[in-house]
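Long-time lurker, first post. I've been practising inverse folding by hand and with some scripts of my own, and I keep getting stuck on stretches where the structure tokens seem ambiguous. Below is the full token string for one chain I'm working on. Before anyone asks, I'm not after the true native sequence, just a reasonable design that respects the backbone. If someone could post their per-position residues I'd love to compare against what I wrote down in my notebook.
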């Protein structure tokens, strides 16, 4: 069989297959299959039909029994499908067996997600990360009858015949490309670590927006910071972390970082690949977990995000839960229901209509108060640069120039407290007013 490339083509049609195992919660496979349909449509493949098949034990050759496999292949041919797409992971040999039996391109959810990431990646780092994940995915699959969805499977490595000699050459090429990608990535990551170090010199509290894909993280970033990050009704619209400065009504400022969304059965190699990017999330002071509450599966989405955070060892971070898209939920009393609980840092909002944003400000302020200490300071004129740092932070409540320096009353970030301790002012305000009047008279 010749290697064939699957490109963007309006005639690309797929049959989706979900597997129901004995221990699966009822309804779970059909929810996952609907999500797979959304993913598949995101790469311009239309879905002819979705079928769920029950299995007791996975079959090592085809994952499911051969009778069922024949049925699926016949159905796919009846619909003139180019693809059979499994929601469950196929081993390289199962994938090969399916392709041999059907003569069609047989892929799994992992490969679909990898393809979406490949199409969305914009920055050098994201491109390298996805490229590496795709290479590692395809290395044990080089014997496949069909090429990767990617135009040139092997990322520029032209794959021709399927003879053993050719296979060895292909493997060598892919391995050397993997090594090159790793070393390029190392450099890019070093550069970002340097940038992060520079950013941490600014003593602003930081938070990351995390959550399931399409929950509205970028929309919330735009709503809170009056910026215009890329928002789209697409899965994985954001792949690169974007950081923006946000100001609370109190004048206090914080840095917000938008991140890549999560999804159920996110390929492990992608979590690994994006670990470096996601680490940006982990170095923030706290997390804002955005949940699309208008989605029927929002509870599952929430659990998935929490479990990925767990894998990233971020579960101990303080988390604000923002139930977004409340405008799409019919029940007007919804926000008064069990979800909204400012004490527990849960709020319901709409990034579109701004409903509930005031409550989010309140929760953010409450959290920021934990990162700041209320202080009265007298900064001498020869330490003016400290004043600059405090102004940047935005926690200054009063600033009074007087004879000996500038009197500051403010909420000072924990990170600056040690540096500012020598300038603590223990006198009272009358003295400051007196000093100020002396200063003005001069
Ligand atoms: N009705 C309504 N739609 C919203 C709201 N917030 C976001 N959306 C829509 O939801 C879709 C996804 O929004 P994004 O902000 O791109 O979501 P995201 O979480 O950044 O998604 P990824 O980057 O793909 O992970 C877009 O079509 C938004 O317009 C909201 O509060 N109400
Ligand atoms: Mg986004």
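-- Answer (accepted) --
I ran through it position by position. Result:
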């Amino acid at each position: 069989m010749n290697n064939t490339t699957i490109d963007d083509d309006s005639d690309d049609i797929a049959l989706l297959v979900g597997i129901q195992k004995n221990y699966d919660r009822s309804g779970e496979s059909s929810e996952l299959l609907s999500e797979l349909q959304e993913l598949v449509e995101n790469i311009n493949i239309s879905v002819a039909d979705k079928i769920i098949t029950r299995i007791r034990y996975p079959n090592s050759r085809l994952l499911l029994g051969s009778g069922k496999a024949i049925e699926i292949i016949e159905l796919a041919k009846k619909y003139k499908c180019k693809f059979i797409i499994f929601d469950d992971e196929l081993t390289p040999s199962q994938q090969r067996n399916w392709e041999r039996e059907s003569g069609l391109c047989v892929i799994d959810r992992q490969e679909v997600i990898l393809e979406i990431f490949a199409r969305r990646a914009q920055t050098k780092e994201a491109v390298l990360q996805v490229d590496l994940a795709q290479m590692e995915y395809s290395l044990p699959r080089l014997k496949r009858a069909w090429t990767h969805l990617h135009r040139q499977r092997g990322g520029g490595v032209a794959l021709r015949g399927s003879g053993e000699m050719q296979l060895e050459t292909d493997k060598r090429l892919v391995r050397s490309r993997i090594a090159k990608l790793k070393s390029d990535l190392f450099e890019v990551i070093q550069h970002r670590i340097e940038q992060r170090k520079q950013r941490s010199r600014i003593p602003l509290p930081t938070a990351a927006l995390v959550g399931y894909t399409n929950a509205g993280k970028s929309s919330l970033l735009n709503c809170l910071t009056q910026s215009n990050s890329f928002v789209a009704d697409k899965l994985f619209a954001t792949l690169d972390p974007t950081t923006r400065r946000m100001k609370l009504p109190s004048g206090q400022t914080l840095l917000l970082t938008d991140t890549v969304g999560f999804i159920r059965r996110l390929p492990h190699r992608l979590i690994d690949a994006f670990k470096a990017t996601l680490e940006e999330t982990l170095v923030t002071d706290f997390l804002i977990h955005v949940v699309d509450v208008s989605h029927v599966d929002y509870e599952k989405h929430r659990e998935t995000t929490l479990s990925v955070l767990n894998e990233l060892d971020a579960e101990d971070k303080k988390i604000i839960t923002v139930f977004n898209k409340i405008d799409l939920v019919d029940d007007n009393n919804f926000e008064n229901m069990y979800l909204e609980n400012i004490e527990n840092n849960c709020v319901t909002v709409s990034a579109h209509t701004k409903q509930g944003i005031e409550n989010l400000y309140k929760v953010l302020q409450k959290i920021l108060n934990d990162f700041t200490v209320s202080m009265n300071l007298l900064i001498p004129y020869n330490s003016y640069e400290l004043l600059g740092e405090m102004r940047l932070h935005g926690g200054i409540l009063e600033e009074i120039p007087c004879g000996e320096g500038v009197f500051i009353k403010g909420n000072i970030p924990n990170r600056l407290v040690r540096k500012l301790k020598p300038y603590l002012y223990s006198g009272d305000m009358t003295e400051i007013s007196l000093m100020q009047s002396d200063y003005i008279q001069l």
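A couple of notes from the structure itself: The first helix runs from residue 28 to 41. The chain has a mean pLDDT of 82. Happy to go over any region you disagree with.
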